[in-house]
Design brief:
Layout (H helix, E strand, L loop, with lengths): L9 H16 L2 E2 L2 E2 L2 H12 L12 H21 L2 H4 L2 H26 L6 H8 L4 H10 L6 H25 L5 H24 L3 H10 L6 H19 L4 H15 L6 H26 L2 H5 L2 H19 L11 H11 L4 H12 L5 H31 L1
Antiparallel strand pairs: 1-2
Helix pairs in contact: 1-2, 1-13, 2-13, 3-12, 3-13, 5-6, 5-8, 5-15, 6-8, 7-8, 8-16, 9-12, 11-12, 15-18, 16-18, 17-18
């Protein structure tokens, strides 16, 4: 009798789930559509040791795929960020809003720590300030809202909510160097990124451009290879100076995004999107589902209580800054803006994984945070899209 050991074929399993999740995402019940990342994580939970135990989380290929998937996710977030579009008032308000979110989150986490409901209030507070820009961007784009003024403000808030927490987390949990050394290294990293970005914008010799355009239609795929090398280089550089690898991935994505602006770079961006979301990113979400300790959640009444509490806190922490926007947003846009801003998953998974690995966050608390983030991705973008659609119909 033919039998298949799924542990021996982890790539087959992940790619199969990626296809199934993509098919499920095409099914709509009214305004409800299950995001791909939610399906990928749920299937990861089902095949993992917590439910059917079909795949063990320790496989080397799964570990490697998980790391590559996380880097690819932040690389694409960096590519999607159009600094020209969000600079000025949208970016200024996004930064002010995130600082306000951080203050609210740290107060809430400190209060829960005092009760005591949780440990590591600093990490939990930072997790509550995150926004899953990469998750709701396709939803905004598909609905035709990305190029509107509303979309610009959401994009800016999402970019800050995705990038700022990981920078602060890197500084909080990393003690590889002295304080002044870390500051100097981070400034050096920022300098390298700025020089690379300016080079990408300004240095475009016709012969080099012709070579890159030509190779896009050949087996060499030189622009793709260069971009992947840049991603790996910035990943490595950020780790060497004590930052998280995703900081380098995000910076590399921003640089590549600047270099590929306009119609000439359209095909390249499509290929990078296909490579990242069609192959690498599913590994991150499926493996995160496999690693999620559901047992710690379902067997703890405190953890189950924390899930709706964290879901409410995501809305409060990331939603309250909407009042800073004044006339920039119409009254009917404020609740959708708050819901998009409160959508969180990739950064929650990334920071909780880090917190568990260094012993700052318990498996029980990590499961509650990830569970609430999963619900936010499932509920908030759908609700926000429905509210925006209702406003357009009037």
């Amino acid at each position: 009798m033919l039998s298949l050991d799924l542990n021996s074929h982890p790539i087959f399993v992940v790619l199969g789930i990626a296809v199934l999740a993509s098919l499920l995402a095409e099914i709509r019940i009214g305004a409800l559509r299950v995001p791909v990342v939610v399906s990928e994580m749920l299937f990861g939970i089902l095949i993992g040791p917590q439910v059917f135990n079909l795949v063990k989380p320790g496989a080397l290929l799964l570990w490697l795929g998980n790391a590559l998937g996380l880097s690819a996710l932040f690389f694409m977030a960096g590519m999607e960020l159009d600094l020209q579009k969000v600079k000025g008032r949208p970016l200024t308000l996004a930064l002010r809003g995130w600082v306000l979110s951080l203050a609210i989150a740290l107060f809430a986490a400190a209060f829960l720590h005092w009760l005591p409901f949780l440990h590591a209030p600093m990490l939990v507070g930072l997790i509550l300030t995150t926004t899953a820009m990469g998750t709701f961007l396709p939803i905004l784009r598909d609905a035709g809202n990305l190029d509107t003024q509303f979309g610009t403000y959401v994009l800016a808030a999402g970019a800050v909510g995705e990038f700022a927490p990981i920078i602060v987390v890197s500084l909080v949990v990393t003690h590889e160097y002295g304080a002044w050394q870390e500051v100097a290294l981070i400034l050096g990293f920022a300098g390298i990124a700025i020089v690379a970005a300016l080079t990408a914008l300004g240095l475009r010799p016709p012969r080099v451009l012709a070579l890159l355009q030509r190779s896009m239609h050949s087996s060499t795929q030189l622009p793709i290879a260069i971009s992947v090398l840049l991603l790996a280089s910035f990943d490595l550089l950020s780790q060497k100076i004590g930052l998280e690898a995703v900081v380098g991935a995000f910076a590399a994505g921003m640089i590549v995004g600047l270099a590929s602006q306009g119609d000439p770079g359209k095909l390249f961006r499509q290929k990078m999107e296909a490579l990242s979301f069609g192959f690498f990113v599913p590994f991150f979400f499926v493996v995160s589902g496999i690693n999620l300790d559901i047992g710690a959640l379902v067997h703890s009444s405190k953890a189950l209580l924390l899930v709706p509490l964290f879901l409410l806190l995501f809305v409060l922490v990331r939603g309250v800054p909407v009042f800073l926007y004044g006339d920039s947003l119409a009254p009917s846009e404020r609740l959708p803006f708050a819901l998009y801003s409160a959508t969180a998953l990739p950064m929650v998974v990334a920071i909780t994984n880090l917190g568990v690995s260094i012993g700052r966050i318990t498996a029980e608390l990590a499961a509650a945070l990830v569970g609430s983030a999963l619900l936010s991705v499932l509920l908030f973008p759908t609700l926000a899209s429905a509210l925006i659609a209702t406003r357009k119909d009037k």
